[in-house]
Amino acid sequence: MQTLLENVRPWGGPAADIRISDGVIASIAPRTSDSAVAGDPATRFIDGQGLLALPGFVNAHAHLDKSWWGKPWVSYGGEATTLGRIAHEREHRGELGIPSVDSAVALLGALVAQGTTAFRSHVDVDLGVGLDGIQVVRDAVGALGVPVALEIVAFPQDGVLRRPGVLDLLDRAAAEGADHVGGLDPASIDRDPVGQLDALFDIADRRGVGVDIHLHDGGELGAFQYELIIERTLATGLAGRVNVAHGFAIGELAPARQQKLIEGMREAGVSITTVAPINAPRLPLDALRAAGVPVGLGTDGIRDLWGPYGDGDLLRLATRLAQLSGARRDDELTAAVRLATSDAAGFVGRASHDLVVGSPADIVLLDAENVPEALVAAPPRRLVLVGGVEFPVA
């Protein structure tokens, strides 16, 4: 059966009808056309009521396995350092039943209802949980009943080389279908940046997967690790398959040093993802965009043992990113929404994720005059389609 989504305004433009076939956008026609056949039994009709239409949001950096969403409130504890939070999570996740399919389903349901239709999720892989978290997240996505896009990063949250056996788990995860292998602060966590990166890129090269590395280290220490990542990406031919998550150092460097690093990322095909943190160096978004370096936006952890914050709303997060970047003009506000939607296609393995013919029919309707107003107001989502399938909204 086909679906005709009638009378919507793609990206705030003129009213149009969007025809969906087999989960893909088949045509977009001006509302004045006579493309619909009323009462056609082979077509499902949805009245878009003149609402603004956007592509589904892309969460390019999630931790869907960690959340206690749907459980009673969990008070935060542990030392406020990376190592302190790692230790706190390892000590208490078992008593909370983390990872849990139920919690992951509850979290995902809330996120999809807000219009997020595609995810890249870092999933913990360590000596305690093994690869169980990966199956938990896959099962949770499968339980949603809509074709949500999912890419898995096998993530060594507790370190790589400092925990013997983790490399073998990462290799096994890649062999069994993980899309990327992750890393974590090769210098400050493992204290062996060359060793960690050589090992991760070896797995990626042999298994044909990507690399997605959490890099919190700042200043020249962080910049040095950027350079190591760029070198290995060029050497292995993994252009377009390597990402730096967080990457705070690039926001701390002097302009000339920063620009050289950005040019290296562009040449190697290395992307970056941010979670729009409030108390961290600002990413040079304009310079990254001008160089053609892909930038993705994600929620990071949501209500987990690392912290109690987060509602998962990518549109609100794009608002925060725009505010932190000093965006005010309409083109800047629209660019923030594109960063969280159509520009993020590559982070979930898609050639296209937009309101164009041939793209997956991931469509969000909301009541706003235009895209800039949608960003600053973040109104409730009125309709969410995932691959043409309607998902209940709040």
Structural class: alpha/beta
Strand order of the biggest β-sheet: 5-6-7-8-9-10-11-12
- Low-pLDDT segments, ≥5 res: none
General form: globular
Sheet with the most strands, sense and barrel status: 8 strands, parallel
What's the SSE pattern?
EEEEEHHEHEHEHEHEHEHEHHEHEE
**Radius of gyration computed on alpha carbons:** 21 Å
Total strands: 15
Helix content percent band = 25-40%
* Strand coverage percent: 15-25%
Textual characterization of the structure:
The protein is an alpha/beta fold and 394 residues long. It contains eleven helices and 15 strands. The protein has an eight-stranded parallel sheet.
Show the helix and strand layout.
Elements (H helix, E strand, L loop, with lengths): L1 E9 L5 E6 L2 E7 L12 E13 L1 E6 L19 H11 L8 H13 L2 E9 L7 H11 L6 E7 L10 H10 L4 E5 L8 H15 L2 E6 L3 H18 L5 E5 L8 H14 L1 E5 L10 H7 L3 E3 L16 H11 L5 H10 L23 E4 L4 H7 L3 E6 L2 E3 L3
Parallel strand pairs: 1-4, 5-6, 6-7, 7-8, 8-9, 9-10, 10-11, 11-12
Antiparallel strand pairs: 1-2, 2-3, 4-13, 13-14, 14-15
